[in-house]
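Troubleshooting: if your tokenizer reports a length mismatch, compare your output against this known-good record of 106 residues.
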Amino acid sequence: MAAPGAGDPLNAKSGQAPLAQRIDPTREKLTPEQLQFMRQVQLAQWQKTLPQRRTRNILTGLGIGAVVLAIYGYTFYSVSQEHFLDELEDEVKAARARAKERASGP
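Known-good structure output:
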């Protein structure tokens, strides 16, 4: 009888195909042909997922950029220069009034 996973594509008991086994090329002795085949398969998988990854990266970049621009715009909207200067002028007037009261006080 053959080793499990070799030869017969279906498991005789359950009728399912055997699962691929993960191997560690640093621990197991592999031939150069096997290593080359692994590289080819990895490259094919990488090229297959590259467009999806690129699309997700672009959408993520646009989303982050939109959030940054929204925060930047909200900052300008909420803390406009006019309101900021008005608040400073009110504080200066109040400080001068307090200083004048201290000077003319007791």
